[in-house]
Amino acid sequence: MPKQIPTLVTVTSVRSLTPRMVRVTLAGDELRTFAYDGPDQLVRTFLPNATGELTLPVTTEWWPELTAMPEAIRPILRNYTVRRLDPVAAELDIDFVLHGADDGHAGPGSSWAEHARPGDKIGVLSDGAEYRPPADTAWQLLIGDESALPAVAAILEQAPAGQSFVVLLEVADEADELPLTMPPATTLRWVHRGSGPRNASALAVLRDLEFPPGTPYVWAAGESALATGVRRHLVNDRAVPKDHIYFCGYWRTSAT
Ligand SMILES: Cc1cc2nc3c(=O)[nH]c(=O)nc-3n(C[C@H](O)[C@H](O)[C@H](O)COP(=O)(O)OP(=O)(O)OC[C@H]3O[C@@H](n4cnc5c(N)ncnc54)[C@H](O)[C@@H]3O)c2cc1C
After folding, report:
1. Ligand 1: which atom is nearest the Cα of residue 130?
2. How many Å lie between the centroid of ligand 1 and the Cα of residue 76?
3. How far is the CA of 98 from the centre of ligand 1 (A)?
4. What is the pTM of this model?
5. Residuewise pLDDT in 10s, the chain (256 residues)
6. Is residue 147 lining ligand 1, measured as CB closer than 6 Å?
7. From ligand 1's centre to the CA of 251, what distance in Å?
8. Distance between CA 101 and CA 173 in Å, rounded?
9. Whose CA is nearest to atom 29 of ligand 1?
10. CATH for 139-251?
11. CB-ligand 1 contact for 251 (6 Å cutoff)
12. Is residue 207 lining ligand 1, measured as CB closer than 6 Å?
């Protein structure tokens, strides 16, 4: 993928999806050529800094440019997933987890989304996708927490006919479940952590899961220990080949 330049976009709507997730729709002419490589497409967001200013890097060498900026003007960079891209309407949806909803410790990304209003501006940059099931995949296992929901929803929506999925999603409670458009051969299991520790419920269900026959392709993302725990179990206890597993810590909890 050719290197991209951050582009300025404007919020056109903000919609609450669940108590802990909002969908922000962004518009801007340059979204007509926003690169889209797959359903877990990474969008880097450049958010106004603490002073409320937004200064974007202006070249493809955006990273060194960003790090060289004086702190007073440097934008805040956070990673999100393209939930929907409409190049014709020049629109992009991003679903943001409001992770301050429970403990009041929202970071800048979550906090920006919570207060976003039509007319607000941020920068976005397309930076690749990772979902790549090998040709010899018999079935797919998707595992994640709230932060992975946008990617999981897009993977299921875009799945080719005939592909079968087992989907395991850990969220706080029933109110955080989202309606998903799924291929017919999908087994979906929502797991509620309630007031219990993060990741424990999903990993426990995974350990007891009866796998369909054949080699799966596994896509696992969410809190760092969830992603690494899934991979460890699949490699050590289920003999899933490493090249059939994508795993990524989308964020790291500060709770010990
Ligand atoms: C490839 C990729 C795609 C991603 N896609 C999405 C997406 O589509 N939607 C989305 O919401 N997130 C997504 N994430 C995760 C997102 O980048 C992180 O959650 C990020 O930390 C949010 O930034 P923040 O400024 O709100 O919090 P930070 O400043 O990074 O963290 C502040 C505090 O909040 C906690 N925290 C951070 N994230 C979460 C969370 N998700 N749940 C609970 N507590 C949290 C931290 O532990 C910390 O204590 C993605 C990450 C990656 C790498």
Report:
1. 1
2. 13
3. 9
4. 0.96
5. 668 899 999 999 999 999 999 999 999 999 999 999 999 999 999 999 988 889 999 999 999 999 999 999 999 999 999 999 999 999 999 999 998 766 667 899 999 999 999 999 999 999 999 999 999 999 999 999 999 999 999 999 999 989 999 999 999 999 999 999 999 999 999 999 998 899 999 999 999 999 999 999 999 999 999 999 999 999 999 999 999 999 999 999 976 4
6. yes
7. 5
8. 13
9. 107
10. 3.40.50.80
11. yes
12. no
In the DSSP assignment, the letter for residue 209 is P
Rounded distance between C-alpha atoms, residue 180 and residue 157, angstroms: 8
Nearest CA to ligand 1 atom 51: 250
Delimit the domains of the chain by residue range: 7-126, 139-251
42 pocket-lining for ligand 1 (C-beta < 6 Å): yes
Whether the CB of 107 sits within 6 Å of ligand 1: yes
In CATH, the number for domain 7-126 is 2.40.30.10
Number of helical H runs and strand E runs in the chain:
6, 12
Residue nearest to atom 6 of ligand 1 (CA): 80
Query: Atom 23 (ligand 1): residue with closest C-alpha?
Result: 109
Tokens 């706080």 belong to 172
